[in-house]
Amino acid sequence: MNIRRIPGFIYHYKLHAILVLVTFIAVIILLHHWGFVCTNLEARRHVSSVCSSHEDGFAMGVLCKPLCSDHTINSLVCESLHSGKETVFSANWETTRIVFKAFRIKPVSEQYEALHWIDMDKKKHYPTEDEFEAMISDLVLSKLNITASKRLLERLSHLRMGHYETDIKQREFEMENVWLLLQENEYLISIVYESYDLFPHFIGTCGTFYAVEYVYPIENPTTLLALSDDINEWSKRLKLAIKIINYIDEIENNKIEKFYLCDVKINHFGTPIGDDTKLKFLDLDSVFPESIISRILSDNKDCDKHEDCDYFDCRSVCSVNKRCESPVMNDNLQIVCEKIFLGWTLSGTIIIPGLLMSRRTTGALAVLLRQCANPHGDTVHLPRAPVSRELRTRLYNMLIEMDKQYSNLQT
User: Which domain of life is it from (predicted)?
Assistant: First the structure.
């Protein structure tokens, strides 16, 4: 059949259909590559791989037996929207829901210190126990700016608490697993700060996989319907906003050092199973103590504009010397007000309403939210200032009063 004889509109229709199909496939491939979508087959493939390593003696950890031989860990479900991870999937361990995450292969710019060295005969030489603990101590100081106690070093240097591997070869494999996992900011924070109950509880490991408690991500409110929020919906939004501010106060006023959340999204906050009164932050890859994020931002690298000195939502400034020399300038509440409470703005105009933008938003609340999202009223650059204590208090008190008002209307 001669395609030239096909009527013009059919020819163009087919061409457009092919273009749409190709575009759709390309988008799916990109979303899959970036980790925004995934399939349960991937979860099973990763489990099969780590279990194969476990059978060969290379993968170790308290979760290997229930995952690979007892099969008491089942019902694997791939979790999407985790673009920074190699893989993330949830599973049932008997009656407990847990989330598995994998060690992320680092780019060349983030390569870490090697665990062992290889001699001319290609023989691997591993550190002694004291040397290994010294390496871990240096890593903890570098990543979290704390001096690890002897008890913490023992906890971090072994995969199972209270279990000390006596077989030399098995201990070397264990060291390999431990050292890879310790490069993950999320793994390290989950263990070091597990007593603070700020982040998902650490469960255990198998090879380069580690598991934490399952926490329900906060669903993004239906912003397109924000103008028609009923009283119940608006009351829920107010309560959630108050919980987020309370959580920020917790991470900023802990006994060690103020934490910064440098990649803030509403679904990075979540509630533990069976306790919807408490919030936890789910994605710890970009959570840092203040001293560490300030060191990252003020690394003296070349810059042309302020944005060159940013780390996701944590912002600094480019100096007159065209260097990143300043510490972190904004704070957690500014980020939350800008990205969650207020919503997406363009040239000062709200395009997609945030959590607290609705037809029920009062003029006074809208003013406070704009001031909170942009404390210095910068119209040229992204906001780079912290929220003052006075503004923070006014916003919190207003939300508390509004919550009481709408709670009374519901009764």
Answer: Eukaryota
What pLDDT was estimated at residue 340?
A: 96
- Pairing of β 209-213 and β 202-206: antiparallel
Pick from 190, 212, 234: which residue ends a domain? 212
Are residue 199 and residue 141 in the same domain, yes or no? yes
Among residues 145, 140, 215, 134, which one has the least CA distance to residue 184?
A: 140
Phi-psi category of residue 345: left, alpha or beta, with phi > 0 → left and psi -120 to 50 → alpha: beta
Q: To the nearest 10°, the Cα dihedral for 280, 284, 267, 43?
A: -110
Say how many domains are in the chain.
3
Closest CA to 263 of 360, 356, 185, 175: 185
pTM of the entire predicted model: 0.87
Same domain for 273 and 354: yes
**What pLDDT score does 228 carry?**
60
Between the CA of residue 69 and those of 86, 94, 298, 379, what are the distances in Å? 24, 14, 48, 60
Rounded Cα gap, residues 84 and 35, in angstroms: 7
Going by C-alpha positions, the residue among 115, 74, 117, 113 that lies closest to residue 96 is 74
Q: Residue 191: which domain range?
A: 108-212
Residue 64 falls within a domain, yes or no?
no
Are 385 and 256 within one domain?
yes
Amino acid at site 248: I
Contact 313, 261 (CB under 8 A): yes
Residue type, 194: E
Please say whether the beta carbons of 91 and 100 come within 8 A. Answer: yes
Instruction: With beta carbons less than 8 A apart as the criterion, state whether 303 and 322 touch.
Output: yes
pLDDT surpassing 90 at residue 298: yes
DSSP label at 157?
A: T
CA distance 281 to 180: 23
Closest by CA position to 374, among listed 327, 318, 335: 335
Name the β-bridge partners of 98.
91, 213
